[in-house]
Each structure stands twice: as structure tokens, then as C-alpha cells.
Queue: 4 jobs
Job 1
Amino acid sequence: MITGYSDHAANERTYLAWVRTGIAVIAFGFVIEKFNLFMLTVTGAALGQALPPAQLAHLSGQFGRYDGLVLVLGGAALVVLATARFVRTTRLLDDPQAHQAKTGRLELILCGWLVVVVASYSLYLAFA
């Protein structure tokens, strides 16, 4: 029998939920990036001419060039941080000494970052 099995199982479930969220953010970043390229191609085809890269970059706007990349990198960072937290929590669970609970500042920062990114992209889509 594994000592503290339910604690280890809960830690693993939490880790897998964070990894799943990170993968979803990465996938959303790829979708945004590909959709942006698709819209630029459709715009160029609708005008009946091949647009030069400078004009395509102007159509995509300042935010349109980096939004997908930011989400991909943010999702990757989320997976890395989830892995570090999982390893730290596993070590703390295996340690026989009692430890005090830490506040979830990192999680609040990540959630706040995600809210800011989603809100800014929503505003970009609403007013572009």
C-alpha cells in the first residue's frame, strides 16, 4: 500500500488538469495564428491580387502578428510551471515533516495573465 495514496492521486489529477489547460492554450494560439494567416490570404484573394508582405503586415495590425505566439509561449510556460509544482508537491508529500501551506500567488498571477490576454484579444476582435 502506498502511504498517502489519495494525496498523491489528487496531486497527479491537479497536475494533469494544469497540463490539459496548457495544451488547450497552446492549441488556441495555433488556431489564432493559422486563422490570421487564412484571413490575410482570403483578403488578398478577394482583392484579386497578391498583396506584398508589407501590406499584409499592415492588414494584420500590431496585435495580429504576435497574439498566437504569445498564447503558444504562455501555454508552454504553464506546462513547465505545472511540472515544477507537481515535483515540488510530490517531494513535500513524501517528506515526513509537517509543512505549512503556501498561498497560491503563482496561480493568481497566471490566471490574471490569462484574463488579460483573453480580454485584450476580445477587444482587438471587437474593434478591429
Job 2
Amino acid sequence: MGFNAPCTSVSCPDPGRKLALEPRGRHDDAVPEHDLIDRVAGSTGLTPGEAARVVEDVLAWYREPVEDYVRRRHAHYRLYGKRNTEIFPLIAGELATRLVAAPSLSERQLRRIVYG
């Protein structure tokens, strides 16, 4: 396609200076699953660009590292008033049911992820 991508610049620590100009690519360039994008676009009526964004978001969700997932879910449950004795079994159960299941982690391992 004759796509003229706008350029973005990276700020330099020195005020007023800009580093290299980099063209921003098409949104679906980061997603190599073109067959999946075509399938989502065809089954939902989304444009290929919209379908690419959906596929990219779903893949990013499942690519989240286990440690980040555990910390995010722990913070969520704490926000809603749950205690650790309730939280860690919930997170362990969630990890076991993810599409690409994380390794089985003990409550101690989950605590270490959250608290170091």
C-alpha cells in the first residue's frame, strides 16, 4: 500500500533537542497472524485495521508475564477488600485456567512475586 506514515521523534534529555525521526508503521505490522486478522475481520464485519487491533490486544493479554498478571490481580483483589488468604487461592485458580496456562505456582511463590 502507498501508506505514508507520520513520523515521531524521540525526545533527547537535553531540552529542545530531538533525536531521530522514526516513521510510525501501520498498526497491524506488529501482528504476524494475518490469517487470524482476516478471519476476525470476515466474521465480525470489522475493517482489517480494526481486526488487527483486536487481535493485537488479545495477544498482548495472553503474552502478559506471569509475574505481572499476579501483581495486577493481587492489586485488583486488594482494592475490593479481599485478604491474602482469599486472594492467593483465587489467583492460583485463575492461572490454571488461562488459555496458555502458567506453571503451577504455590502460595509461597505467589507471595514472593507480589512482595519480593
Job 3
Amino acid sequence: MSSLNFKQLRYFCAVAANGIIARASEMLHVTPQTISGRLRELQEQMNARLFDESGRKPALTDTGRLVFSYADEMFRIGDELQDVCRGAYMARRRH
């Protein structure tokens, strides 16, 4: 399995949070086709369906909910790490 692509995960989380590819594409300033392609790649890479698209809106599968939970936590930790590093950098600049 190749390494995770954070852009794919970011697109996946945007669709999972918004429920609609078009809304996620507006938020991320990319085309719906770009998001659809990245989601397809992510599902192939994970060898799992992340969305059930049988209804009007794509709904997360059980695996999709698990991936969303992990991805959300990864991005939260990444943001926290960035904040910590910025704080350390600013503290060094003051001395």
C-alpha cells in the first residue's frame, strides 16, 4: 500500500462533513471532478468503499466513518503541532 495522501484525506473529510461534493468543491476551490477523482483514488488505495452513494447524498459507510474519525484526529493533531511550533518559534524570537 502506498503512503496516505493528505490532500485526498482533506477532500474526503470535506465531503464527509458537508455531505455534498459540490459544496465541498466550493469550499476547497477545486472542481467537483477533482474531488470525485481523489475520492475514487482513496477508496482504491484503501480497498474499501467509504461512501454509500445509493441515496440522494453520499453517506459514509462504516469504514468511511472510521476513516473520517482517524483523519479528523490526524488533522487536529497536525494543527496542534503547528500551533506548538509557532509558539516555540515566537518564544525564541523574543529572547
Job 4
Amino acid sequence: MTGAELDDDDTGNRSVGAVPRAVLEYVAREIVDDPDAVVVEMNENRHRVDLRLNVAPDDMGKVIGRRGRVAQAIRTVVRAAGAREGVEASVDIVD
């Protein structure tokens, strides 16, 4: 393969769900007071990625938001990132 052919094949060594996971981790770290406590666990299938977000107990309210609006916004953004990669992504916020 030539260099141009390698550039056209962007599915290379990336794991399924890497983009939604990176988006979730970035957004969560920007929202919370203790970004070092953010842990994202990933369970991947062929076309589906289940992400579990763990944060410090004191930051749980910031991640969920009033009436769950922040949590819903996070889920929407991560779902969109997954769709761009061709996978269905879901987020579960673990307490």
C-alpha cells in the first residue's frame, strides 16, 4: 500500500468506541471539581459501546444537574460522537 492508500483507510488500529469515550472523559473532567477522580469504563460490542462514568461523590450533583439536564446533555453529546464513528453509544452514571 502506498501512503495515500493508508491515509484513506482510517479504521486502522483504533478501537471501537474510542471517540465517544474520549468525549465523555473530556466533558466530565471539565465539569467536575476533582478531575482526577473521573473514571470511564467501557464495554464494547460490535456496533455498540456502553460507557460507565464514575466521579467523586461530591461531584455527582454537577454531573447530573438539575432534573438530570446535564446528564441528558452529556448523553446526547456522547451519542452524537458515537454516531459519527458508526457505533451506538450509551452512558450510565454510576454512584
